[in-house]
Specification:
The protein is mainly α. 71% of the residues lie in helices and 0% in strands. The chain has 2 helices and no strands. The protein is elongated.
Length: 73
């Protein structure tokens, strides 16, 4: 389960960074998810930043859970 959370967190970080790079440079035209969600039109940079931050938080939470379960043994 922790590997799944880490993988999902990494995917969120990558999608967030891709959105930020696309906003700044125009690269990764079809790779980012945020760009294809119509209800976020005009807020892509904010949504990408939130995705990246949530991804980092998810990876850190999965890592903290791993340390906490190892300490309890």
């Amino acid at each position: 389960m922790k590997k799944l959370l880490e993988g999902l967190g990494a995917l969120l970080v990558v999608q967030g960074l891709v959105g930020i790079v696309h906003w700044a440079t125009g690269w990764f035209r079809y790779f980012g998810l945020i760009r294809h969600l119509g209800f976020l039109h005009g807020y892509e940079i904010y949504a990408s930043a939130v995705l990246a931050v949530l991804g980092v938080a998810l990876v850190l939470a999965a890592d903290a859970g791993r340390r906490g379960s190892a300490a309890g043994r």
